[in-house]
Model the fold of this input.
Amino acid sequence: MPALPSLYVSHGSPMTALQPGATGARLAELAQALPRPAGIVIASAHWLAHSPLVGGATQPETVHDFHGFPPELYRLRYPAPGAPALAAHVVDLLDRAGLAPQLDPQRGLDHGVWVPLRLLYPAADIPVVPLSIQPGLGPAHQYAVGRALAPLREEGVLVIGSGSITHNLHDFRAGYSSEREAPYVRPFTGWIEQKLAARDVDALLDYRRQAPFAQRAHPTDEHLLPLFVALGATGDGASAQRIDAGIDLGFLAMDIYRFDGAQAAG
Done:
């Protein structure tokens, strides 16, 4: 079996689960194009920790980590099994890379995990291991996490980073819409696409200084950091395919990236 790609998915608002729109269509198409994975390791922008935490629950709960949404959203479940053995393997890979991981045997699946996975694999029959990110340690650390997980791709495990390619929730009240997009969205996402196409990892890791409107697109890092996990899992020579899933609410770009091509690290 050839090595699987890694993915970065923009999960957007929790309402994506009820109103999947273009994101749902693109993720369903992507699932059809991929070999069926034996397991999924997914780094979520909604699980923050000082060091890598790895979810090892046998049957992780669906966590509704949001407030003020319609009742039907809270009734949704994603009953995918956990994978304690895979979680232990992830801990070992991260430990060998000197990244000081810990196992969390109780962690459930937050909406950064279950919202996109319901659209990719609605049957919920592939084992899932959630992974935290470390917003205090920056992009280079998350890239190192991805590099440590690269061998999983050759073991039939799909590595996913789940965030949003732009994420400025202050703009909910700014009056943006499909007819009036935030002016920073396309310059920022275009820069990301260009640097990924050029495999310019150094520039991407320094996006805060180099990317146009970086502070507007991401007042805080956590929703972009999963991109670096996915990129790291395929290495410096990865090819990046951007999948356009539109711009929600005029300011949440929903880009999806598929990374292929580099050999996994031994």
Notes: The two ends are 17 Å apart (CA to CA). Residues 262-266 have pLDDT under 50 and may be disordered.
